[in-house]
Amino acid sequence: MIRKIVLILILTQISTFAFAQKRKKEKEVDPDSSGVVSDKLMPTALPLLLFDDKERKEKKKKDKKSKNKNIYYGQKTKRGRIRQTFRSQTQFQNFFYTLDKKVVDPYIRDIYWYDKKDNVIRTKDFDPSRGYLLHGPYTKSFDTTVVEEGSFFFGTRHGIWLTYDNKSVLLDKLHFSEGWPKDSRVSYYNKATNQIEKLTPIEYELQEGNFFHFYEDGQIAVTGEYHFGEKVGLWTEYWNNKSKVVRKREIQYQEQPFTKDFRPFIRAEWDKEGNLLYRNEERARN
User: Fold this and answer.
1) What is the chain's mean pLDDT, rounded?
2) Torsion of CA 189, 42, 212, 104, to 10 degrees
3) Domain residue extents for the chain
4) How far apart are CA 14 and CA 30, in angstroms?
5) What confidence category does residue 69 fall into, taking pLDDT thresholds of 50, 70 and 90?
6) What's the pLDDT score for residue 64?
7) For site-directed labelling of 89, which of 7, 110, 145, 166 has its Cα 20 to 30 A away?
8) What residue stretch is flagged as signal peptide (predicted)?
9) Other CB atoms closer than 10 Å to residue 60's CB: what's the count?
10) CA distances from 75 to 66, 110, 125 (A)
11) Distance CA 283, CA 286 (A)
């Protein structure tokens, strides 16, 4: 009888411990448990290179002087090639990549890198342990017909990018500066000191890419993404908190542009200390 009671007590303790661990784990993975954001995930400096014409000209002059093989923008690179067959056509991607583990610019939406393990080129979630940033000339062709060509600068599209149809007729011509479309709109609190208020990426006269709004002291105020001129995904507002980056509110927009019958909704809200004030429980379950 005593042995049976002891066994029941042990099983009860194990069950209680397991339940507590489960609750703890659920709390740890709850993305809304705190509005405080790790500074590592946020931009820490304004993208001055986009507007620094002097530095860009010096970089261009340095590149002209360098005539060594496989050196682009003053950086030594390695050559890569990916071959894939689609039905009756063979696609070739010829590119160069750098072994330099440069920190990826958090302002740029699309960072192109070569995933050496899977032998593919990716544009999201750069992982230095799996691959390398593209850097230098790039061409994509089907059989012998080039359909896209341009150049990369540490994973970002840079300079003139051209796309063609299967008869080599020019379809598009875009201009980039280290990942930023040249037509991007910038507003300032003080232009003389590059005190930026808003960065709005523009392609084909439409908003396209990551949007940033800053407080006057330089801290991030709003982040979001445009696609074909439409707000998409999660847009986040932040408190102007001097000591830490804290989410204020998240608004969920359509995942794909021009989605019919979708109405944006507030997903969650937090106070200045990062304590959760509101969460759309019904939407969170779906």
Assistant:
1) 81
2) 110
3) 36-49+183-286, 66-182
4) 24
5) confident
6) 52
7) 110
8) 1-20
9) 11
10) 10, 21, 23
11) 5
Q: Which of the four pLDDT bands, split at 50, 70 and 90, describes residue 284? A: low
Beta carbons of 239 and 221 less than 8 angstroms apart: no
Phi, psi of 119 (to 5 degrees): 55, 50
CB atoms within 10 A of CB 126: 18
- Structure tokens of 243? 């000591």
For residues 237-245, average pLDDT: 87
59 membership: H or E segment, kind and range:
helix 53-65
Say which residue the tokens 């067959």 belong to: 85
pLDDT digits (tens, 9 = 90+) for 93-128: 999 999 998 887 777 888 999 999 999 999 988 999
From residue 115, give the alpha-carbon distance in Å to each of 43, 73, 128, 191. 24, 22, 9, 39
Backbone angles phi, psi at 148, to 5 degrees: -155, 140
Instruction: Convert 71-95 to b/e letters by CB count within 10 Å (16 or more is b).
Output: ebbebbbeebeeeeeeeeeeeebbb
Q: Which residues contact 260 (CB under 8 A, 6 or more apart)?
A: none
The rounded distance, in Å, linking the Cα atoms of 202 and 185 is 7
| Residue spans of beta strands (DSSP E) within 99-192 | 113-115, 120-122, 131-134, 136-142, 145-153, 156-164, 170-177, 180-181, 185-190
And the tokens for 169?
């007729």
CA distance 251 to 236: 6
Strand-pair category, 245-252 with 230-238 = antiparallel
Token readout for 66 is 């360098």
Positive or negative, the CA dihedral 35, 38, 212, 267 is negative
Task: Name the residue with tokens 């990018």.
Answer: 161
Across the range 29-48, mean pLDDT stands at 64
Q: Residue 48 has what pLDDT?
A: 45
pLDDT band at 51 (very low <50, low <70, confident <90, very high): very low
Q: How many CB atoms lie within 10 A of CB 113?
A: 25
